[in-house]
Design a protein that fits this description.
about 200 residues, alpha+beta, 4-stranded mixed beta sheet, about 35% helix, globular
């Protein structure tokens, strides 16, 4: 079973995480940031990952440290659960419709970090959540997974729908990328022989 438990404690946050890549999409997420909890619940459901996150952070300042550190721990958890990445498909992409929004999410778990964030979120906040933190989350996740992550807004006007479409689509894309490909017969999906 590809499962992992991690903990990260800093002066700003305290985060515990459990991840099972071969789950059914059930989650229990409490980070102190309600919008992030909602988005990660959707990510886990659409990725069919079992995900538990318990987090405390300095949200009296703002949500920045919590969002970034959750992204860090989530990326680390995927990296640890995948090990040497032997047998996984490596690539995944999904185009998701969320009402008027159409969002493409793609990932390459290839050992190199890059983020292509092409979301045009029209508002600075969704509720109390600073929408610029979507980028912080993506970079933290990609750096710690050592993956290239691209999200592209084809259309969309509602900030909530755009962000929700991205998290749902990213869950689906990651699900494809971490799936075991029988054709690889346990080999790494690279002509170099390692990722």
């Amino acid at each position: 079973m590809r499962a992992v438990e991690l903990k990260r404690t800093t002066a700003e946050t305290d985060i515990s995480l459990k991840l099972n890549l071969d789950g059914t999409g059930k989650s229990a997420i409490r980070t102190g940031c309600g919008f992030l909890d909602h988005m990660l619940t959707l990510f886990a459901f659409h990725g069919s990952f079992d995900l538990e996150i318990e987090g405390k952070g300095d949200t009296h300042v703002d949500d920045h440290h919590t969002v970034e550190d959750v992204g860090i721990v989530l990326g680390q958890a995927f990296a640890e659960a995948l090990g040497n990445k032997a047998g996984i498909g490596r690539y995944g992409s999904f185009t998701l419709v969320m009402d008027e929004a159409l969002i493409l999410s793609a990932i390459d778990i290839g050992g190199r970090c890059q983020v292509g964030n092409h979301l045009r979120i029209p508002t600075e906040k969704v509720g109390t959540f600073d929408t610029e933190l979507v980028s912080e989350f993506l970079w933290a996740f990609a750096r710690n997974l050592q993956a290239a992550v691209h999200v592209y807004q084809i259309c969309g006007e509602n900030s909530h729908h755009i962000i929700e479409g991205m998290f749902k689509g990213l869950g689906r894309a990651v699900k494809q990328a971490v799936a075991v490909d029988p054709a690889l017969a346990g080999r790494v999906a690279s002509t170099k022989g390692s990722l």
